[in-house]
Design a protein that fits this description.
single chain, 416 residues, alpha+beta, Beta-galactosidase, Chain A, domain 5, nine-stranded antiparallel sheet, seven-stranded antiparallel sheet, 10 helices, 27% helix, 28% strand, globular, disordered C terminus
Length: 416
C-alpha cells in the first residue's frame, strides 16, 4: 500500500536533525522565561497546555489567577453552508481564473458556490478562571515567576512572613489533568481559598469530593464541565459554594479536569474518571509522566547561536535591551524554542488543531473569535511542525481538514 503524505512526512521528520541532542542542557542554558513581578495583563501571563486543556498563569501574590481553556469550548453549532452546485461549478471557476477572467470567476463563484444562509455567530470561549486567594499579611521578598519550556511548568516563588512559598503548575498530556502544587517550607502555614468561576452560563456545586463547574456556551454551544479536587498534606480542605478553603496545610495539590460534549463526549463522566485516576497517583508520578511525554517532543531539536549567557537577567529586561539595539543571540534561541513549545502545548494528536490564538483565549468573545482562518493564520501556526521535528503536532490539522469529507461521503450508517 502506498504511504500517505502524512506517513511520509512523519518518517522524514523522525530522523535526527543536525545538532539534535537528548542531554539536559546546563542550568545556565535552560530555556526559561522569567520575571521579577506578576503579570499585570493577560498577554503577560505564562501559557501552559496539553493540546486539550490550557491555562494562562498570572503569578499573583495575594490572588493568583489561572485563566482556563478547553479546546472544544465553542459557542456555535454545526451549520450546513455548502452549495449543492459547488462541485459542478468549481472546474468552470478554475478555467476562468486560468484564462485571466478574474471578475467573471468571482461573479460565478459568488452566485453558484456561496450559500446565502445566515450563519449564527459563534466564538471560542474561556472555560473560566481558577483563582487562589492568599492573605500573607507581610511584605514579599525574592519574587520570581518563570516558565520552564523544557519541563512545561510554570513556577512562582517568594518569601513572606519568614516562610518560602512555592507554586508550580503543569498540564499533563498522559493524565489529562492540570496539577497546581502549592507548598511552604513552614509547616501549617498554607491558608488560601480556591475558587472556580466563569463570566456567564455556568454554575458550581459540590459532589463526591469534587467541586464541579458546569454550563453551556451561549444558547447553541457545547455543554462543558470543569471539576477540581484537592489533596492536602498537614491541613484540611473545606468545600465552599464555588471552590475550596484550605487551612493549616504544609502542601496542597489541586487537580483539575475539564471536557465538553463535543463529538458526543460525556463531560461529567470524563471529569470524574480522569480525576479519580489522577488522584490515585502521587504528585511525583504525575509529574514524571508529564515530563517524559513533553520532553519526548521538546528535546528533539536544539539550536545554538552562540552569544553570552544572560540567563540571570529577567526575560522582559533582555527583550527591552534588544529593542534598544543590544545583541542577545541566546534570547533568539529562547524565542525559537518558545514557538515549538506553543505548538506542542496547543496541538496534539487526537485533539483539535491550534486556533487563531493556539489554545489560549480570554473572555466570551476574544479577538476574531479565536477561530480558524485559512487565509494564512492556521498555516502560520504550523510552520514549526515539520521543519522543527514536531510532525505529530500537525496531525490535528490534517484530521480537522479531512473530517468534513469523511462525514459527508461515509456510507450510510457510518457517518461520524
Amino acid at each position: 500500500m502506498k504511504p500517505t503524505r502524512r506517513e511520509m512526512l512523519s518518517a522524514l521528520t523522525a530522523l535526527p536533525l543536525a545538532g539534535q541532542t537528548r542531554r539536559e542542557a546546563p542550568a545556565a542554558e535552560r530555556p526559561i522565561l522569567w520575571y521579577r513581578s506578576p503579570a499585570k495583563e493577560w498577554t503577560q501571563a505564562l501559557p501552559i497546555g496539553n493540546g486539550n486543556l490550557g491555562a494562562m498563569v498570572f503569578g499573583g501574590i495575594e490572588q493568583e489567577r489561572l485563566q482556563l481553556n478547553e479546546h472544544s469550548l465553542w459557542s456555535g453549532r454545526p451549520v450546513e453552508i455548502d452549495s449543492p452546485h459547488t462541485l459542478e461549478v468549481l472546474p468552470k471557476v478554475r478555467q476562468l481564473l486560468f484564462d485571466g477572467k478574474y471578475t467573471e470567476a468571482n461573479q460565478l463563484a459568488s452566485r453558484e458556490m456561496m450559500v446565502r444562509t445566515r450563519v449564527p455567530s459563534s466564538s471560542y470561549q474561556t472555560l473560566g478562571d481558577l483563582t487562589l486567594e492568599f492573605d500573607h499579611g507581610a511584605a514579599v521578598e525574592g519574587y520570581r515567576r518563570e516558565l520552564d519550556l523544557d519541563t512545561a511548568t510554570a513556577r512562582v516563588e517568594y518569601r513572606a512572613g519568614g516562610a518560602k512559598f512555592t507554586r508550580e503548575v503543569f498540564v499533563s498530556q498522559p493524565d489529562q489533568v492540570m496539577a497546581v502544587r502549592i507548598s511552604c517550607d513552614k509547616p501549617g502555614a498554607l491558608n488560601f481559598i480556591a475558587r472556580l468561576k466563569r463570566p456567564a452560563d455556568a454554575q458550581t456545586e459540590y459532589a463526591a469530593g469534587e467541586i464541579a463547574m458546569r454550563g453551556k456556551a451561549a444558547n447553541e454551544g457545547v455543554a462543558f464541565e470543569c471539576h477540581i479536587a484537592p489533596r492536602v498534606v498537614g491541613g484540611k480542605a473545606e468545600a465552599t459554594p464555588d471552590g475550596w478553603r484550605i487551612t493549616g496545610a504544609d502542601s496542597v495539590t489541586l487537580l483539575l479536569a475539564a471536557a465538553t460534549n463535543y463529538k458526543g463526549k460525556d463531560p461529567a463522566g470524563f471529569c470524574d474518571r480522569t480525576l479519580k485516576s489522577a488522584a490515585a497517583k502521587t504528585y511525583a508520578r504525575l509529574r514524571q509522566a508529564h515530563l517524559a511525554e513533553h520532553q519526548r517532543l521538546f528535546r528533539r531539536t536544539s539550536l545554538d547561536l552562540g552569544g553570552d549567557d544572560r540567563s540571570t537577567i529577567p526575560t522582559d529586561e533582555r527583550l527591552a535591551a534588544m529593542q534598544n539595539g543590544g545583541d542577545d543571540p541566546r534570547l533568539l534561541t529562547l524565542y525559537f524554542q518558545f514557538g515549538r513549545y506553543l505548538l506542542i502545548s496547543s496541538s496534539r494528536p487526537g485533539g483539535l488543531p491550534a486556533n487563531l490564538q493556539g489554545l489560549w483565549a480570554d473572555g466570551l468573545n476574544p479577538p476574531w473569535s479565536a477561530d480558524y482562518h485559512v487565509n494564512i493564520n492556521i498555516q502560520m501556526n504550523y510552520w514549526p511542525a515539520e521543519v522543527c521535528n514536531l510532525s505529530e503536532c500537525a496531525d490535528p490539522l490534517f484530521d480537522f481538514t479531512e473530517s468534513p469529507a469523511r462525514a459527508r461521503w461515509a456510507p450510510a450508517g457510518r457517518r461520524r
